[in-house]
Amino acid sequence: MTERARAEQELAEQPLELILARNLISIVSLPAVLVDVNTRIVFFNEAASEQIGAPFEEIGVLEPDEWSARYGPLDADGNPLPSDGLPLATAVRESRPAYGRYFFRTESGMREVEAGALPLTGPAGYHGAIIVFWPVPADEAR
Amino acid sequence: MRIRFWGVRGSIPAPGPNTTVVGGNTPCVQVTGEDGTELILDAGSGIRELHASDVGHAKRIHILLTHLHLDHIHGLLFFRPLFDPEAEVTVWGPPGRASLRSRLARFLSSPLSPVEIRDLPANVAFKDAPSSSWRLGELEVRASLIAHRGPTLGYRIAEAGATLSYLPDHEPGLGTSLSSAPSNWISGLALARAATALIHDSQYSDSEYAFRRGWGHSSLSDALAFARRSGPKALFMFHHDPGHDDGQLQSLAHQATDDAARLGVEGEVQLAREGETFDL
């Protein structure tokens, strides 16, 4: 490996806040997604993969435009929601957990979920966020 | 650079006849650069002997704390240069919500201490370790947060092509598999990658670790797995459990050598011993 390649690899190491968050969500059964400082989806857990329809190992890292085109979030009519009103955007902007309710697209059709976003802010600043979500019960669905 | 171990024990000093070979003092490692720049990694009880009888010690010293657990700071008030009005000592540590000085003052004040920080005769500065690398003399230093309980840094110190990585309190295997996790998702790996020497936590035997998971320290197997992924030329097993006497540590060292060969760890594996000096 060249020095340059090694340096690039070192630069790519995730901050500890994200590493520990990934370790945590990988062992909980609540569907959870991890996004980095650039709003890329860098991991989702097994429970989330059951909702999404495919494991993370198969899908890999997703850029924001990739995951919004593929999954949403969407309104009840299937229209994309403006990103600045989503829990993640609120969490990042206001440095607080935020909550929302929206639809996303799965292989088996539209699914309504409630979601909460938790910003991961450490001594060096904002690093990303955990988004947990759970299906809206059928009797409460819009 | 020259490295000397002044304390290699974890958690609490372990003096006595059963620890004379490996040593009983808590973490303190002296790093001296080619230009004489002096760094002291952690201020465990081992720091007491450092410069204890040396009237000609360096007047400018940097103490790099990995974190503020007692075993890494309880030697501070016994470090002679702090009582020398001509000495300039800079203490670096992990960033936090409060200043490093005020966090250390909780320990260095009444009722826990007879001497307050403000009473120290030396010129002492307290600084948060920056998030990007910085230079201390000819030594290039990099610090990153690593997996332990509470904000904890690992350090990587480089000079003239040689690199020392110091991760004395580290549990990178918590909640993940060190053999299969992607490299950029392993705590501390960038700090340790291809180091000339890696000083790494290996406090517990594998059977002990089963009952201490989440305490912030590594099993021997995890230390070796981390070394296999990071590829140092030499691994120094460090932060020895205070309950391990010389005989038990020798047994662990033999096991480490055997396991390292089986796991494909390419570098040399050895116990860090108090008083040992080596050059990189």
Offer a concise description of the structure.
The complex is a heterodimer of chains A (142) and B (280). Chain A has a single domain, classed as Beta-Lactamase. Chain A has 6 helices and 5 strands, in the order ααββααααβββ.
Spatially, the strands of the biggest sheet of chain A line up as 2-1-5-4-3
Number of strands of chain A: 5
Number of DSSP helices of chain A?
6
Return the average pLDDT of chain A rounded to an integer. 87
In CATH, the topology of chain B is named: Metallo-beta-lactamase, Chain A
Main-sheet strand order of chain B equals: 6-5-4-3-2-1-14
What would the CATH topology of chain A be? Beta-Lactamase
Main sheet attributes: strand count, strand direction, barrel closure of chain A: 5 strands, antiparallel
Distance between the termini of chain A: 55 Å
The radius of gyration of chain A is 16 Å
Using only C-alpha atoms, the radius of gyration of chain B works out to 18 Å
**Going by CATH, what is the homologous superfamily of chain B?**
Ribonuclease Z/Hydroxyacylglutathione hydrolase-like
Strand/helix succession of chain A = HHEEHHHHEEE
Roughly what is the average pLDDT of chain B, rounded to an integer? 95
* Poorly predicted spans of chain B: none
Instruction: Indicate the low-confidence ranges of chain A by residue numbers.
Output: 6-11
Q: How would you classify the helix and strand content of chain B by structural class?
A: alpha/beta
Q: What does this molecule look like?
A:
- The complex is a heterodimer of chains A (142) and B (280).
- Chain A is of the alpha+beta class and 142 residues long.
- Chain A has one domain: 2-Layer Sandwich (Beta-Lactamase).
- Chain A has helices at residues 3-11, 16-25, 46-52, 56-59, 64-70, 87-94, and strands at residues 32-36, 41-44, 98-106, 109-122, 125-135.
- The relative contact order of chain A is 0.17.
- Chain B has one domain: Ribonuclease Z/Hydroxyacylglutathione hydrolase-like (Metallo-beta-lactamase, Chain A, 4-Layer Sandwich), CATH 3.60.15.
- Chain B contains six helices and 14 strands.
- Chain B has helices at 70-73, 100-105, 189-192, 206-209, 220-230, 246-263, and strands at 2-7, 28-32, 38-41, 60-64, 88-93, 123-128, 134-136, 139-145, 153-159, 162-167, 197-201, 234-238, 268-271, 277-279.
- In chain B, the strands form two sheets. In chain B, strands 6-5-4-3-2-1-14 form a seven-stranded mixed β-sheet, with no helix packed on it. A seven-stranded mixed β-sheet of chain B has the order 7-8-9-10-11-12-13, covered by helices on one side.
- In chain B, strand 7 (134-136) and strand 8 form a beta hairpin.
- In chain B, helix 5 crosses helix 6.
- The radius of gyration of chain B is 18 Å and the shape is globular.
- The N and C termini of chain B lie close together (6 Å).
- The interface between A and B is medium-sized, with 19 and 22 residues.
